[in-house]
Amino acid sequence: MPVRSLTQSVMRWPEPDQVMRQVRAWTGVQAARVPSLEKVAVFGSYGRGTAGVGSDLDLLLIDAHASGPQHERLLRWPLELLPLSCDALVLTPSEHEELMAAGSRFATELRSDARWVWSRPLTHPADPGEGG
Fold it and tell me: pTM to 2 decimals?
């Protein structure tokens, strides 16, 4: 959100790097809270690197346990804790794959604009050939 300067009577919009730091911190907290969160990306102006005064935040959350309509999926995420107004889209991994394979204009924009800010590390099962 824009913040009022203590020494001036003007509002200052947060710098893009400050917003991105806060998005990464928010994502880390959410990843610890929701184990089914797999990936998070910003897209739109923050993904393109063209964000400026008045830009909102566009967020893509890949949640393995997402279900129901978008408005219900969004209830799980405290978007109000982010530094700016946020438009979010919550997809399962398979929904994301289907969207990207569809070749729609939105998929093309996501392909070019999405900047992945967090991804859950892959865990590999122990090699069956290993002793132990």
Answer: 0.84
